[in-house]
Amino acid sequence: MPTASPQEPTLAKARLPRGLVDRLPTDIAATDRLVAAIREVYTLYGFEPVETPFIEYTEALGKFLPDLDRPNEGVFSFKDDDESWLSLRYDLTAPLARFVAENYASLPKPYRSFRAGYVFRNEKPGPGRFRQFMQFDADTVGTASVAADAEFCIMAADCLERLGISRGDYVIKVNNRKVLDGVMEAIGLGEAAEAGRRLTVLRAIDKLDRLGPAGVTALLGSGRKDESGDFTKGAGLDDASISRVLAFTEAGAATAGATLDQLRSVVGSSERGLEGVAELGDIADLIAAACYDDGRIRIDPSVVRGLEYYTGPVFEAELTFSITGDDGKAVRFGSVGGGGRYDGLVARFRGETVPATGFSIGISRLQAALQAVGSPIVTSVVPPGPVVVLVLDRDHLAHYQALVTTLRKAGIAAELYLGTSGMNAQLKYADKRNSRCAVIQGTNERDAAGGAQVMIRDLVLGAELAKASKDRTDYLELRQKAQAAVPEAQMVEAVREVLGRHGA
């Protein structure tokens, strides 16, 4: 009687979750250069680094996040062993508010800091919309002066130009949530009981660039169905209220003064609205004094920002150029950063108002834009790989290890080949590692008259040698440079010469 064969084990599927991406060496190197350039600008402005963890208590993140009232939506959450809810951070601002509140007594006020890191959003993924992405924030906590808000607008402009975005290809747009509060009062949504509908209005206006006036009108009214068939419930405003909200977003004019005049007309007699207009006037004066009122920074009522915690000036960095996509259609990157004043966030922990303002750059989106315009900061260049020490005689493995150690002690990135292949395969491996140089030692080199030698292979010239012309003189000259035997004691110097030849 035949015996049953054991059941084959089920293999796990190698698949990446939706809304996430794997990052390769070229991507990582580009991000490192991008972050370093932004850090230079932030440091120039007197900000210092701080780092907060990926995970916070859910209550520390507040009720300011989309869909937080739906269990496990908006943020990725889980329970700790003490039954406390923890969440992956949604942005870098709420964790900073917790940090400042917890360390308030020891921090200088105003407290100026920056931080870069990944944030996580439990939302529906889509084109260019990821569940994990990197942000780079700077914040000033402890001052109510609009000079702090104006400074972020100026610094944002400096950042974009430092990254290779030409003047005229971007604009920093500034508005004030107090002005919008005045509009909300005028349409009957000023009371605390209307907080939900106010947030719906905010998010509708925030989609103006993407959906246009018709799409925003639908979201301000009964709702909108997108291309996939998903329906988003609207704010339920009547036609008169929708017209007033749209008039607010369309109040921008050719000059800051004309824009402010139109905003005063929209907010009417609302004290809070008029206070917001006055603050915008002060910011406009500061921008002009710094000579950034040449089109780089402008007052724009269409900017509201989607998060509810903003309490005053808000700003957004927008790229204004277009590129041609793979389908031949024009693609515009739009917003690559934004921020604003959030005077209530730290107060949630301390019970007293602690004024704060900040600016956040979306690194992933900005990196894609910089690659599109060919910025040298993110040019897709494969980083040089390590020097590879080949292993030709397994019984001399310890000596090969000593060669690698010598290179590393000299500050040269190096690795010992750990596979089982022969010499040609090892050289192909070094090519795949993007190595500029390989160190080779076989029996002939080790037993050379006059002492042990190593062969230094210039892998870049070696590749050129394979394509060399038939001219014998050129061939021999290239071959001589591509590979040379040197005494072991001169290995480091010879390797450095090869690496320097190729800028590695």
From TrEMBL:
User: In its keyword annotation, does this UniProt entry include Metal-binding?
Assistant: no
Reactions catalysed, as given in the entry? tRNA(His) + L-histidine + ATP = L-histidyl-tRNA(His) + AMP + diphosphate + H(+)
Enzyme Commission code = 6.1.1.21
Q: Indicate where this protein is primarily found.
A: cytoplasm
Q: Please tell me which top-level EC class this enzyme sits in.
A: ligase
Compartments, record wording: Cytoplasm
Instruction: Print the keywords alphabetically.
Output: Aminoacyl-tRNA synthetase, ATP-binding, Cytoplasm, Ligase, Nucleotide-binding, Protein biosynthesis
- State the similarity comment: Belongs to the class-II aminoacyl-tRNA synthetase family.
Q: What does the subunit comment say?
A: Homodimer.
Name of the protein described by the UniProt record: Histidine--tRNA ligase
The record lists the organism as: Lichenifustis flavocetrariae
